[in-house]
Amino acid sequence: MTTAEGATGSRRAARRAALQALYQWQVATTDVGDLMLQFRRGGHLRGADADYFRTLVEGTVTAAPDLEAVYGEYLDRHPAQLDPVERAILLLGAYELAERVEVPYRVVINEALELAKAFGATEGHRYVNGVLHRCAGHWRAAEVDAKGE
Prior knowledge:
With 149 residues, the protein is mostly helical. 74% of the residues lie in helices and 0% in strands.
């Protein structure tokens, strides 16, 4: 495995763990500090970039109202009415689009789709795809325009 493949895999694992943490944050209203401790101690971060996990979870939780204000414009219902898995995926993807500009928007969307296929409802990935593509146009307009989309 190359270093780039290892970095990609560790970030993918960080996103997967972050999704689980964000789900728990929503459903059980677990404190972020408690989540960090629980995931670190529980072995949920094996193979994951622990720093990226922390950044994703803390950043997403902090920015959640602002993220939902933007992606909420592209929903057919209020964000609170979304399935908690799809909501967590949208929050995570929106955070990466808005704040992690070093990650290409296509990578952000692809990673979110993989999470939606693995954990979401049967057609949830289609919904996530549509919303995040619109968000990419909002937060990454220059990057999307450069790709000709």
